[in-house]
Amino acid sequence: MYCALCLELDIATEADTLEGAKKNLREAVEGYVKSVVRDDEEDEFIPRPVPEEVIKEYELRFKKYLSSFRPPELYGYSEMIHAKIPQAVE
Questions:
Q1: In the 8-state DSSP scheme, what is residue 85?
Q2: Is 41 part of any domain?
Q3: Which of 25, 28, 30, 67 gives a 20 to 30 Å CA spacing to 8?
Q4: Are 77 and 62 in contact (CB under 8 A)?
Q5: Quick one: how far is CA 81 from the chain centroid?
Q6: How confident is the model at residue 76 (pLDDT cuts 50, 70, 90)?
Q7: CA-to-CA distance for 9 and 52, rounded, in angstroms?
């Protein structure tokens, strides 16, 4: 099972494959942003980006958490994707 997470929007998805988890997250983020823009609620529901130090701390804690599982070779952490969502045009 693979999980994908967007810290900025507090959205998480999962799938049986890494590509599936990424695809699901992409679709979830797109759906969220479209809904917020459609309802003209960008200021309330699209928060500022998560500071880089928070992301790094989250990554370290998540890696430590995964290392606690046994057997360790079945669990791992890989690949971080950063995407910027363009600001809505007024």
A1: P
A2: yes
A3: 67
A4: yes
A5: 8
A6: low
A7: 15
Spatial distance between the Cα atoms of 17 and 3, rounded to a whole number of angstroms: 9
CB neighbourhood size of 46 (10 A):
16
**Tally of CA atoms within 13 A in the half-sphere of 73 that contains its CB:** 0
Whether the upstream peptide bond of residue 71 has omega within 30° of 0, thus cis, is yes
CA angle 12, 13, 15 (to 5 degrees): 155
Same domain, 4 and 43: yes
15 and 33 both lie in a single domain: yes
Mean pLDDT score, 72-89: 54
* Residue 59 pLDDT grade (very low, low, confident, very high; cuts 50, 70, 90): confident
- Domain membership of residue 90 (yes or no) is no
> Range of 68's domain?
50-80
In a domain, 39, yes or no: yes
